[in-house]
Amino acid sequence: MADHSKAFEITIAALGIIVTGLIGYGQYRLNDTQNQFIRDQKQAESDRIEAQQKADAKRYGDATELQVMSIVAPHFVNLTKPGKDFDSSWRVVESAATYLSDQHQRSGLAAMATQIARGNSEIPQEVKTRLQEATVVSAPTATATAKWFTVLDSLPADDQKGAEARANQRQAQFRSIGLNSEVQLYKTKISNNFAVVVGGPVEQSAALELASIARKNKIAGDAFAQQDKEWTLVGTAPFR
Questions:
Q1: Cα–Cα distance measured from residue 110 to residue 217, given in angstroms and rounded to the nearest whole number
Q2: What is the Cα–Cα distance from 51 to 59, expressed in whole angstroms?
Q3: Helix, strand, coil proportions of the chain in percent (round to 5)?
């Protein structure tokens, strides 16, 4: 009788352990399901917010592009004919097109201006090159350390020696005002020209500052800041 009682107690204890385990597992599964539901809800909310932000950014970009185009529209009448307002109008349109391309990834104005520029000998080649580059937008960057160049000259791709000589000249000019920033030669990807740049890839603020220095010191009157569009480095001045 004692053996039966002992066996019964062991069975009851074993069943208790099993039941406790099952209850614990059930609670675990319930908690896991609840946590997964919470994660799914959070992910759905995150996706909704991201979609809303993208939609807001697109609306803002559309509004900005429309506003800039409205501002420069009066200048288009001066673009196809020589005249006293020709040069200033092209500078306004080119600057606006580059701004929309680099800052808002919008190339409509650049494409429009590029079409007008084709075959017009009155438009400087450097301006045509910059407009052509602006028709290919760069992907938005997540940080402020995106690569920017200070472009001093845009030169034909069939005269590398001439481009190297210009780079040497620009380096000497910067040395003459006490700046030791490197002057480099790049091959552009879109227009397939040579670009003489100073300072190498830098942050946008530094590229803008160098462009301002170049203009103020009459080194390159058309110096400008250009975001990296996967240009290829040819070399660094001085070239032999």
A1: 29
A2: 12
A3: 60, 15, 25
| Spatial distance between the Cα atoms of 101 and 201, rounded to a whole number of angstroms | 18
* Bridge partners, residue 155, by sequence: 194
pLDDT reported for residue 198:
94
Give 208-213 contacts, CB < 8 A, sequence gap 24+: 208/150, 210/150, 210/181, 211/150, 211/151, 213/177, 213/179
How, if at all, do strands 224-227 and 148-155 pair? Answer: antiparallel
The per-residue pLDDT for range 157-215, each reduced to its tens digit, is 899 999 999 999 999 999 999 988 899 999 988 778 899 999 888 888 888 888 889 98
Verify cis geometry, omega within 30 degrees of 0, for the bond prior to 238: yes
DSSP assignment string, 81-118: S-STTHHHHHHHHHHHHHHHHHHH---HHHHHHHHHHT
Burial class (CB in 10 A: 0-12, 13-18, 19+), 210: buried
> Model pTM?
0.53
- Residue 56 tokens, joined: 């807001």
Name the nearest CA neighbour of 231 among 194, 198, 202: 194
Q: Is residue 61 packed enough to be buried (19+ CB in 10 Å), middle (13-18) or exposed (0-12)?
A: middle
Strand partners, 197: 151, 184
- Residues in a beta bridge with 232: 187
Domains of the chain, by residue range, sit at 141-240
Residue 104 near residue 92 (C-beta atoms within 8 A): no
Structure tokens at 178: 């006490």
